[in-house]
Amino acid sequence: VGSSSVLTCPPKSNRTMVTWKISPKVGGPCTLGYRSDQNKTDRTNCSNSMNWKLRPDQDPALEIQQVGIAHEGNYICEVVSTEGNFHETYHLTVLVPPRLTLYCDDHGNPVCEAVAGKPAARISWVLESSFTPREEGHDNGTVTVVSKFTAYSSNVTNATCFVSHPAGNQSNSIAC
């Protein structure tokens, strides 16, 4: 989320037409098209964040700027050339790294939260403990995972929470 993404088309010479057909999960479909015989581009219902990376006659790659969850979906590049018709299909999935929060509850137990990640993060503790993570879904498709540390022995003074996520792992320690 927040980065740029570039999707490429089949590398064919003598392209006569290129069409990007985009079907996001949110909102309606959009298309970007290019015809070489007229040196003409066309766009239908595409947001300004989606455009040709360069000039389509040089490189028909699609660039999505400031990728967000709404950009998730299917992207198909169709190329018509003197060699035939070719297509490349992408399914774009957006990862949202969770925000790690670690605090002590009213009873002095460490609580670890992986806030608003996509997909849901996994939480574990460095020391052996009993915990049951709880998940809370949000309207935008992100998930908050909450885990409370309960030590098997009472002499634990420091707890370390480890959050595992495809967008990156994080850890933090706290003494309650």
UniProtKB/TrEMBL annotation:
Q: Which UniProt keywords apply?
A: Disulfide bond, Glycoprotein, Membrane, Receptor, Transmembrane, Transmembrane helix
Family named by the database record:
Belongs to the CD200R family.
Q: Which top-rank group of organisms is this from? A: Eukaryota
GO MF annotation, one: signaling receptor activity
Q: How does it sit in the membrane?
A: Single-pass membrane protein
Tell whether Iron-sulfur is among the UniProt keywords.
Answer: no
Could you provide one GO biological process annotation from this protein's UniProt record? regulation of neuroinflammatory response
The organism's lineage is:
Eukaryota, Metazoa, Chordata, Craniata, Vertebrata
Q: Which gene encodes it?
A: Cd200r1b
The protein's location, in the record's own words, is:
Membrane
Q: Domain Ig-like: where?
A: 1-93, 100-175
**InterPro entries to which the protein is assigned, alphabetical:** CD200R, CD80_C2-set, Ig-like_dom, Ig-like_dom_sf, Ig-like_fold, Ig_sub, Ig_V-set
Which Pfam families does this entry report, sorted A to Z? C2-set_2, V-set
| Gene Ontology cellular component list | external side of plasma membrane
Name listed for the protein in its UniProt record? MOR1B protein
